[in-house]
Amino acid sequence: MATTKEKLITHVMKEEPVGSRNKVTVVGVGMVGMASAISVLMKELADEVALVDVMEDKLKGEAMDLQHGGLFLRTPKIVADKDYSVTAHSKVVVVTAGARQQEGESRLNLVQRNVNIFKFIIPNIVKYSPNCIILIVSNPVDILTYVAWKLSGFPKHRVIGSGTNLDSARFRFLMGERLNIHPSSCHGWIVGEHGDSSVPVWSGVNVAGVSLQKLNPEMGTDGDKEEWKAVHRKVVDGAYEVIKLKGYTSWAIGMSVADLVESILKNLRKVHPVSTLVQGMHGVKDEVFLSVPCVLGNSGLTDVVNMTLKPEEEKQLVKSAETLWDVQKELEL
Amino acid sequence: MATTQEKLISHVMKEEPVGSRNKVTVVGVGMVGMASAISILLKEMADEVALVDVMEDKLKGEAMDLQHGGLFLNTPKIVADKDYSVTANSKVVVVTAGARQQEGESRLNLVQRNVNIFKFIIPNIVKYSPDCIILVVSNPVDILTYVAWKLSGFPRHRVIGSGTNLDSARFRYLMGERLNIHPSSCHGWIVGEHGDSSVPVWSGVNVAGVSLKELNPEMGTDADKEDWKQVHKMVVDGAYEVIKLKGYTSWAIGLSVADLVQTILKNLRKVHPVSTLVQGMHGVKDEVFLSVPCVLGNSGLTDVVHMTLKPEEEQQLMKSAETLWGVQKELTL
């Protein structure tokens, strides 16, 4: 007796269906993971999204809630499981899992807890998607990108940290507010550590190629009447302030993750400030990851843009690298 | 001494700037409000989004988190305040504020708490956006749409309840899973109460105009071997299940709100199952709001599609109307 489906529809293809071609996995269904997921879904970047977490009910509930919105989306397959087999054949795996900063806590404090979590997560990702690109978001992102690189055995072009992509976005938003111009027309790069010691490259800050520091030579110094240095401070404090007000941050980081995933999946070769191995650059001697402007595409992080930094700026990068290396050398991997 | 801004940019327009033309306000920055906000932002339908709530820190934190993502968005103005003046001149005001269902609690139980909250919210909306369209999402949505209509003094075409737009989306998702077809090609309408007594109109369920009930005459009855009635049951239980697993629902309702707002702002005149005054239709005698297929556009809810319902289906609608009227007549407005 034919089912309703059989009476309605005739299947006419003998071969196996092709399967998903642009799969994105998000590891961790907390606020950052879900904001990343909804941004990736609404930007229609993937044909399949997989979610993984250890909290089974929360995971199932989040997946179900997204699936119920399927009518309004163009991502036909949304799957979720505690078991990593659900992540197989991903092009990009976004890792948001781990402890997050409590009010007033610095990102570096989270490190050992998150290393232990990564010892479970990273080998599982590699097992099911041996050719994927791993995008690390969990904090402290620069150290954890190093950890993910070591634990995965992947070449360095396939392990990327979200780094200062968000810091730079915050800077450009604040710059846009000051100048009454859309952030996408305000250019400014924050590099180095995603955290308290990030480095604003004042010489590059421009609109339409016009350097703001040339118009205002005191920019970035304490002598600046307009106190542009406060813009950078607001970026550094930005996350702490949002955490204090709403308990966590989610939307901005979620959108910045989708921005990176888009460049990768669509092979755009756009330049983003993301965290990569900077040993040998800018005087950095140790095996550390810091954010510099990088070209992203479907192979991953293929090129690094060489910045012309002032001596003070290079010193700051070297100092960040030393701070990070001090923490990294104590880790048990 | 010219500022950096003045050196960089010459303002060349003498007149006052025009101001926002497609402003959307979201009242309530809980999970549903924020999922609605992010969906509206990522679908780029507004040129200004305003958020209102009574919890000032949470409100400020959420607004800041969205603003920090400004680089990735095409909605240049995101504002927030406890004071409703921030909502002035909105085209659509989405009301998500109020108590939500706890695990196992029905939507009707929330009613008196939410009526009291509406007595503050609705007059404030009207004061600053006297020509707007109000979209009520808070539960029990059918009763609260009636309440908003009464408290606002608006004509009925400008007070709309999100109603069974989400129920129908969930139904079409589940139908799509059964048939292995995208939800947007699976057609099915759930009408009446957004809640336990919603009515699936089996005669309308189709793919490409082919009626499933004509292929399977038992569809929707207890005798149906394929138990399609179960699909409706999963819709009714859907919200409870997600709440039990993740604590609340957000993504699907947020996407469905953006779907409705899009139709209104873009004057699409699409037909959606939303909650409107149904007195005089389908045997309903009382002044109640229930979901029926309605045409939405930039004037609001201008037309209702008249369904040919079976006697049992009409009876269910009348019964829902009586249940809702039983609750409404006890309210102090």
From TrEMBL, chain A:
Record's HAMAP family? Lactate_dehydrog
Question: According to the lineage, what is the superkingdom?
Answer: Eukaryota
Signal sequence segment: none
- If you read the UniProt record, what top EC class would you report for this enzyme, in one word? oxidoreductase
Q: Which of this chain's residues are annotated to bind NAD(+)?
A: G28, V29, G30, M31, V32, G33, D53, N114, V137, S138, N139
Compartments, record wording: Cytoplasm
The GO biological-process annotations, alphabetized, read as: lactate metabolic process
GO terms for MF: L-lactate dehydrogenase (NAD+) activity
EC number in record:
1.1.1.27
Active site, UniProt feature: H194
- What residues does the Lactate/malate dehydrogenase C-terminal domain cover? 164-327
UniProt keyword terms in alphabetical order: Cytoplasm, NAD, Oxidoreductase
Q: Which InterPro entries match?
A: L-lactate/malate_DH, L-lactate_DH, L-lactate_DH_AS, Lactate/malate_DH_C, Lactate/malate_DH_N, Lactate_DH/Glyco_Ohase_4_C, NAD(P)-bd_dom_sf
- Which Pfam families does the UniProt entry name for this protein? Ldh_1_C, Ldh_1_N
Catalytically driven reaction(s): (S)-lactate + NAD(+) = pyruvate + NADH + H(+)
Biological pathway: Fermentation; pyruvate fermentation to lactate; (S)-lactate from pyruvate: step 1/1
**Which family does this protein fall into?**
Belongs to the LDH/MDH superfamily. LDH family.
What residues does the Lactate/malate dehydrogenase N-terminal domain cover? 23-161
Species of provenance: Aldrovandia affinis
Name this polypeptide is given: L-lactate dehydrogenase
Q: How does it assemble?
A: Homotetramer.
Name a GO CC annotation attached to this entry.
cytoplasm
UniProtKB/TrEMBL annotation, chain B:
* Descriptive protein name: L-lactate dehydrogenase
Record pathway: Fermentation; pyruvate fermentation to lactate; (S)-lactate from pyruvate: step 1/1
Which keywords label this protein? Cytoplasm, NAD, Oxidoreductase
Q: What residues does the Lactate/malate dehydrogenase N-terminal domain cover?
A: 23-161
Q: How does it assemble?
A: Homotetramer.
The record, for InterPro entries, names:
L-lactate/malate_DH, L-lactate_DH, L-lactate_DH_AS, Lactate/malate_DH_C, Lactate/malate_DH_N, Lactate_DH/Glyco_Ohase_4_C, NAD(P)-bd_dom_sf
What residues bind NAD(+), as annotated? G28, V29, G30, M31, V32, G33, D53, N114, V137, S138, N139
Please state which protein family the record places this protein in: Belongs to the LDH/MDH superfamily. LDH family.
User: The organism's lineage?
Assistant: Eukaryota, Metazoa, Chordata, Craniata, Vertebrata
What are the GO cellular component annotations? cytoplasm
Q: What class of enzyme is it?
A: oxidoreductase
Task: Look up the EC number in the record and give it.
Answer: 1.1.1.27
Q: What organism does the record attribute this protein to?
A: Aldrovandia affinis
